[in-house]
Amino acid sequence: MVSVNERKSYPLLVEQVIRSAEEAAATAPKPTVKASKSGQSKQESGKVGRPKGSKAKDKRAIAWTPELRRLERMGKSLLERITPLCRIRHLVLDGHFGNNNVTQVVRPSLDLHIISKLRNDSALYLRYDGPQQGAGAPKRYGAKLDYHQIPTKYRVHASTEKQIQTEIYQATMLHKTFADPLNVVVIVKTNLVTQKKAHVVLFSSDLALAYDKLIDAYRLRFQIEFNFRDAKQFWGFEDFMNVNKTPVTNAVGLAFLMVNLSHILLARYRTTFPAFSVLDLKALFRTRRYAQEALKLLPNFVDPLLIAQVLDAMPPLGAIHSEPTFNTFP
To answer: Which helix (H) or strand (E) holds 143?
Structure first.
């Protein structure tokens, strides 16, 4: 769970995954379609339109893969744990999950809005707002979005810093593989010296979500990487040698438990010392433990005030930031 106010993420649920051969094959890269001598693929060189006898597909009737089942199961389990404490409205996922199948799991099943990323060459269409002609289904798709010439009426922000121009566009758009309209935010960066451009396409099923909150939520997803970094660097996530299911679960769970516990303890110390780090926290508790074990060897008549002074003086010895005098708890 990512806290927008604290700008931190807290790991609450993990699960071991051993992918089956079927799931590995489903997630393998698909082979590219070879083009003919005329420069067209076999699909493009055929007849235009829907093949004879085919029927319109219900985009909400998805094929449930093991990955989607796992996402639904873990999402429901997480919501059951945190719903009594707070309300969650959005589920932020990386670009691997930026597709209609995942969106149909997040919206109807979990009752959340998805925030994710699309491919930078995704075929997006503006909504058609012209007159409807003839009988049949109303026309939905308007002009296809050209990422190099996005209409200025959709630009919501523009800034320039160090010869890099940033333009942000937001609009409700359609994608032919998605069942519902999408709240799309396109971030275009232009090098004013070389005129080279690059863009990122973010989207959400929440059509009322402002562009700045959508971008901020997706940026905060990177806080999860810091959880894994801390678990590996400080709490043994990279060093345990277990191979069986239960010991592995315990080792991983303990590593992430310490990540959350260290967040709580660091917040206490940083109120008076902002530079306090995880290494300082470990040094504090390690040296106090050493001091307590050493003091047990002294005679029983040692002055208790002296013991307290020793316990307060020793922890900074192993810390990186040793300026303040640390206490056990503020």
So the answer is: strand 141-144
3-class secondary structure per residue, 203-225: EECCCCCCHHHHHHHHHHCCHHH
The domain total for the chain is 2
DSSP letter at 107?
I
> Does residue 300 lie in a domain region?
yes
Residue 29 domain flag? no
Query: Can you point out the beta strands (E) in the chain?
Result: 2-3, 8-9, 90-92, 113-118, 124-127, 141-144, 155-161, 164-175, 182-191, 197-204
Both tokens assigned to 301:
């008549």
User: Environment class of residue 311 by beta-carbon count within 10 Å: exposed (0-12), middle (13-18) or buried (19+)?
Assistant: middle
Q: Give the three-class secondary structure for 261.
A: helix
Tokens linked to 302: 């040692």
Quote the pTM value: 0.80
- Return the higher-pLDDT residue of 295 and 101: 101
- Average pLDDT over the chain, rounded to an integer: 84
